[in-house]
## 1
Amino acid sequence: MRVDILGIGVDALSMAECAARIAGAVEAHSRLRVVTANPEMICAAGKDPDLRRVINSAGLVTADGVGVVWAAARLGTPVPERVTGIDLLEALFPLASRRHWRIFLLGARPGVAAEAARRVGESCSGIVWEASHGYFEPAEETDVIKRIGDFKPDLLLAGLGAPRQEFWLAEHEGLATVSIGVGGSFDTLAG
Ligand code: UDP
């Protein structure tokens, strides 16, 4: 079930249910685009119909922040709990490790995504990684898209900042089985 928060449909699912939905999509090779909708994004979407469309057309929209959980409760349509991008990743990596998922990290400053992959790989071996920084010039974008396409990721994580990553993933939906906009998560994972 989706609950409406200022024109954005947010899935009323727990953290475990969101992770299970994503894992199920990867395993079934069923395309899924995920948006973790935080309060800033929901407010911005109120003024930007294109952003609203991009979020509402995602297959899974999570309540990213206590403010969203609070708003849902206030509107009388509660959602179970906050589901952030980093929490989702931490739930998914152990499974990805066992199932040898191919994960492409796109975003953050040069070296950060690769370091995030290295760090996660220390405890979750078996994941096949590829990474690219998020400061490519428009002229370099074709190369980035080709690298992702050639890699054929099960999971494409875009940490380009919101809402750019949401627009980017919607525009390049065919590149991966599952894609998630994860904001500054690579910086966190790289430590
Ligand atoms: N970023 C990027 N390319 C850009 C601008 C930003 O890859 O052109 C990255 C930035 O390095 C950071 C992430 O996008 O890793 C955005 O993180 P932030 O926490 O500012 O964004 P939010 O989580 O609020 O979306």
## 2
Amino acid sequence: ALATGIVGLPNVGKSTLFNAITQAGAESANYPFCTIDPNVGVVDVPDERLMKLAQIVNPQRIVPTSFQFVDIAGLVKGASRGEGLGNKFLSHIREVDAIIHVVRCFEDENITHVAGKVDPASDIETINLELVLADLETVEKRLDRVARQKKSGDKAAIAEHGILTRLQQALAEGKPARTVSLDPDERKLIKSLNLLTLKNVLYAANVNEGDLANPEANPYVQIVKRIAAEEGAEVVPISAQVEAEIAELEGEERAMFLEELGLSSSGLDRLIAAAYRLLGLITYFTAGEKEVRAWTIRQGTKAPQAAGVIHSDFERGFIRAEVIGYEDLLNAGSLAAAREKGLLRLEGKEYVVRDGDIMTFRFNV
Ligand code: GDP
């Protein structure tokens, strides 16, 4: 499953945020693995379309799609040299698909800052440097091996050597691997290295409650925004502490609390949505009398692979799919009406599923 890892220096609010995530969490019965691994939290992806579909179809149950967060605590200065629990944590980051970097943007004299003062630019640099150094080591090790293969005239090795050299240069200057422009073929060649700084990053600027209505007024948030803009990354201002409080509320109470804070949605919802975008994920739906359900796929996924998210048999035996766009179904008012109007399309193996598609799969068992 796709997952995003939460990183940041100690005492910036990672655990608080992670606890809010697990509190707000998806129905844990569906996700047995998260009770096994305390560092994995699963959240429902909020999606208004699901409720609207349910109104049309009237199913017995409604199942949102979900999303994994992994708490990667313990990244400290020196981690790339194995300090703290360094290497173990770096290997956890290797396994996630994208990174949420929590940055402390709140002042609180009762909460120690590891570097002595709140300083987002220096915090970000500290974390990024550890990741860069870990990648530099990975790249140099690989370079050694490829250099030997290159001598024997191996074409793939020659190509890889070129890419690795470019990566090495950037990393040695302290720049993340994602600043090196690589075409899709080049990316493929180095994919197995699983470079940490090649992963997309989203900055979560952790602010105090008072800043939530207007986070831009917080100068620390401005600093994070400037750095993120240079990297082409997104920033989501959030208050981990407030999220922890929101996570304990439900329905009406929750809406009232958000209104008091001057917010239309919780920061967590915005963070989930941003992480979803960051991973290039989209949602399709299945809609039957039993259940209306949302499913997550990567952008560009074709119909059989999309079916495979439900069950591998669906992919293996895929024949075709009956498809209607979300807006079309809403306009038609019901699946039956949509069918009468000829709005349901039959699509084959090459169909690229779009965000919001409602799909019915036909398959051989
Ligand atoms: P971690 O080490 O990054 O996991 O940080 P924690 O989540 O344990 O948070 C460190 C301390 O900061 C805890 O005492 C939190 O209650 C506190 N904290 C977290 N978020 C906020 C915030 O937005 N404002 C304030 N004032 N304190 C916070």
